[in-house]
């Protein structure tokens, strides 16, 4: 596996070299893309400020320093002997805003978390408002990882502030090696979608850990299979599996962007996850409008939205179009996200009869979608992105539904699957055997993603959650040791303490979130009402002072609103729908005024999968709130909650 390139700056040089070079030389390096005059004037002012502040500082200077995961550039980076100073200039600004503070904090955190040579260095973020006359603040106390809270600084104070960081002494590091060191970002799905839509490659924005399956490698395997289907005039179904948070959606978006231009290989990204589609569409629209700002003709939001809608579609709309029009779809490549959530024949027939007026519909959703793509006379490719243990609703066919549809159809589809699809968790053994007997099954090892990217601080989270849900206390304790120091976990029976813990952890624009099962009907005494219709666009994209935002920790999102998405820090609220009993988990629904036991095996699995989704949403850390119960409320008896709390405590989750 090739070593990825390091980070890049438009200009970098030792500070003493920078001080000798002319502004014209430095500006020539910075203005390589033909910036607008206002930007050039801002650079001139920044250079003057830096020349005055760095006279007595020994180190290395980087200007316009690219931060790929965030899709932006830091104004300046000063490399000292054992520290990094990240500087953001706000030229002409009189005040230090929260948004600007979080911006420079995010740059510092990105280096700390994802740049190999920065993990063990002190990092000082600095915000300079060039017209400010007050409002300054010095560096506070650093966090455990060595990142200081951002300092606010006027131009007059900037030289002294740089002097205070320059006195640090330790073993020096080589600036050129630092710049060339591997950058292994782990973007959120929203960040990834924006970067890919802007034509960045998955290799540029995704981690490249030596022990992790390379997303670029999986994407390349899919591209090769698509090219082969086109070349040979074949029809192929490609299955991509992975643990929660492994980057399956990221792979799908990458393939879609690589085949997004009109033509015979045009691809469409399809998802039945309404919140995911809504959030990604809105995020891409906002990002595209920002990129087009200042261009002529002036971009219209409606036009940008239509373009984005063609790229990311709701799978049900795609299905309905196929029902109305018997012609082949415009796309030769269809990527189905969370394919295991497609409806079985019974659920599809019921929907068609009730909502579409179509009686006696006999296809399952996978069977009908395959039939639509089979209408192409020459070739087509279907990519199914499959989550492990992610079915959370009645009527979902699971991945076996796709394989059974393939085995039953007369169209000579060829199936390419990772060996892991044979695992019992996928419930696909019988269907795989049928495809194998028909000589239509091909195993491909590059189609499985085995390492979680969501929880970038540790790869053990999904394994820990699996052990918890399998009631494997010893296994959970072992995995918890792997999480220690890398992925903070806490357990509490006090919701206020849980929220306080979350707020103490978040820095910069890191996202908080309150999560609950859609069956968690008895959290209402704790002001958590899952019947409230959370708008995922406001919840995931709203600013932290918006009461509808996840950061406000007021509205709890359920598994249906967060599946496929993530937050940085989560509070998972654990209600009595899933209870730890002496011999097994006890599964319950709340109906009317009381809890009722869930007896159906599929429905019990849905309850477990709900908590699997909730417990794997947080990228950086999580607190679990188990209510204390009430002796005065028969629906919230302490016995409903105590066993769960004891089990989670016994496996070693710290109690706060």
Tally of distinct domains? 3
- Structural shape: globular
Largest sheet features: 8 strands, parallel
CATH topology of the largest domain: Rossmann fold
> How far is it from the N-terminal to the C-terminal residue, by CA?
43 Å
Output the CATH class name of the largest domain: Alpha Beta
Summarize model confidence as the mean pLDDT: 88
* CATH-scheme architecture of the largest domain: 3-Layer(aba) Sandwich
Poorly predicted ranges: 1-5, 208-212
Q: Give the number of DSSP strands.
A: 22
The amount of beta strand, in percent, is 15-25%
Structural class: alpha/beta
Q: What share of residues is helical?
A: 25-40%
Could you explain the architecture of this structure?
The chain folds into three domains: 172 residues, no CATH class; 197 residues, Rossmann fold (3-Layer(aba) Sandwich), CATH 3.40.50; 190 residues, no CATH class. It has 24 helices and 22 strands. A hairpin with a 4-residue loop joins strand 2 and strand 3. With 656 residues, the chain is of the alpha/beta class. The N terminus is likely disordered.
Short description:
It contains 24 helices and 22 strands. The strands form four sheets. Strands 7, 8, 9, 10, 11, 12, 13 and 14 form an eight-stranded parallel β-sheet that branches.
